[in-house]
Specification:
By secondary structure, this protein is α+β, with helices and mostly antiparallel strands. It has helices at residues 19-22, 26-36, 91-102, 107-125, 132-140, 167-177, 208-250, 299-310, 313-320, 351-381, 385-391, and strands spanning 2-5, 10-13, 15-16, 49-56, 66-72, 77-82, 157-162, 182-193, 196-205, 267-270, 279-283, 287-294, 325-327, 335-342. It comes from Marinobacter daepoensis.
Length: 393
Amino acid sequence: MFKIDPTANRINPLETKRFSDLGFTERKHLQEWLENYPQALTQSDGDELLIIQKEFDGFDDTRERLDLLAIDKEGNLVIIENKLDDSGRDVVWQALKYASYCANLKKQQVVEIFQRYLNQKAQNEGTAPADAESVLLEFLQADDLQSVQLNTLKSQRLILVAAHYRKEVTNTVLWLSQFGVNCQCFKVTPYQAGAELFLNVEQIIPTPEASDFMIGMMAKEAEEKNADTELKHRHTLRMAFWEQALEAMNQSDCTLYNNISSGKDHWLSAGSGLSAMPYNLIFGKNEIRVEFSMQHREPERNSFVFERLQAKKSEIEAAFGDTLAWLPLPNKKACRIQYAKAVDGYNKDHWPEMVAWLVEHMIKLEKALGEPLKVVRNQVRRDDFGAVSMAGR
């Protein structure tokens, strides 16, 4: 760090000092500075801290004291540990213990801790103490305590402050960050220039740039975990639904699904006698449907079958009893003939009605396609079905 001399148009290096060389102590000086100006430990205007206790020892069955306890704008408790010239080897373990103790604090207990701090501070200054709840609500910009999220599960933050960090400390902090533990390391360095003293406070873990990246990565990880949980939930739902559907199918006149097991997919397939062209039952969040799907790896084979059936469209729909959706899907390999119904699929109360609908309409679809498919099967089984296709156009 340099001091600018505008008169001489020069910069002069400041002398790096140790706190101990200057006679500064952890509690009497560094702790006092941070207590009265906690924004030294923030990186942006919106990231404010409110100190709610110092030398806090209100932990059951232990005589340990944490240096400073603060709260941030999100209502998270922030444990601040100061170590002056050297971080020591055990500062992370110490801070984690305090975080675990604080994790059990209920909303009203936090208010009471803050009130004791304000009472002691007012007594030292000879003034009337402020009301802790009012100060908290003003800081959090909330109307009432009941609506505030305060010290929620796994929300505790750690801030370590020291002039020098041992490798075992920085390695552990970086490792903890991979598990979502919000831990910051601030390097504090005193400087001297003549009779003037200066203090530089710098966040080194994570760096401001890395902090944004880590926040983004944690958000992405949380999103992926939520997606994975949602997927597992859907798999469980589908298995349960298909079990009901298969039971109903086996008790009906439809024999397509007699040897089919339930699965986790949103579809359940049964053979039609044509390779890679199954009958499908579809179960979705907003829709159920029955369909005949032409999904052979040879697109021309799918088109051939689709066109032959579409030529019998009026006959097939009359047998089915309603208009079907005919989907040639020219930009994809598959073709489909389907019939759908809008539903609230994940509401289990609706499942009996949905299962009955699927059974009824799969029976209708199989019957409507029965005779036309027999003709198409014979055509497809010819060695040169492509020539048949060309001749029919």
